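Agenda item 2: adenosine-5'-diphosphate complex prediction
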Amino acid sequence: MRSAWGISAGLVTGGMLMRPVGASEASRGPASSPTLSSIDKRVSALEQQQRMRPVVVCGPSGVGKGTLLRRLIADHPDNFAYSVSHTTRNPRPGEVNGVDYHFCEKPDMEKMISAGQFIEYARVHSNLYGTSIAAVRSVGEAGKTCLLEIDVQGADQVKNTDLCARFVFIAPPSFDDLETRLRGRGTETEEKIALRLKNARDEMAYLDKKGYWDTIIVNDSVDDAYAQLKQAVCLS
Ligand code: ADP
Ligand code: 5GP
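Presented output:
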């Protein structure tokens, strides 16, 4: 499908790949012919390794990232969890500290940044946001695939780590739809809506980067977008 932004949705080849399980053994050549059951085991180990790769999800504010990721976690609570980010923005009504974000004061977050406690951090819509090493580690320790809902500056930084993440971009069907959703959510002041819409243009420019995204999803119908997200995270 093609959106009003001129984006083709679907799987984009060219993402990072982990060294496959047993790759070094394979390059040496097997001592004896592998049995079907050993091949089966290797394939399922590879599939498991693919499923466990962290997933970075980007897209402009209001596009529906949270809507899709919350559904994924609700449907598969044993398999997926958010890395809970730190932010200096104020909590919205209903947001819970430690669940939606670790809400913190700017000097505290700056101290953590200086201490090297973040995998990535960025100034987004005039606040600091960041993914701590501890947040990603705790999801891995729970045996779940880590979902990082971050902006494109953060994605650039994750690309330079050995996290071996998959990169998914959620795009709106049109700029008008994005504006309607952002307003409809009712969480931002006029001033903040204007800032988020302005920044949306910079985020969308990342779609021009060849080979950057493993998957681009146009969130037109939530159900269709969700089906594509499941495919992107190896659930179908
Ligand atoms: P983000 O996390 O990307 O900032 P949200 O998940 O908060 O975005 O979604 C913003 C608003 O858009 C919410 O009110 C949500 O219910 C709505 N929304 C999400 N996906 C769709 C869609 N496909 N069609 C219409 N509205 C949507
Ligand atoms: P919100 O204020 O709506 O919760 O988040 C605004 C934007 O901040 C999100 O759309 C997302 O792109 C970005 N964001 C959230 N958490 C992080 C984070 O940990 N790191 C970075 N770099 N960006 C984040």
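Discussion summary: The pocket of guanosine-5'-monophosphate (ligand 2) is lined by residues 61, 85, 89, 120, 122, 124-125, 129-131, 149-151, 153-154 (CB under 6 Å).
Owner for follow-up: CH.
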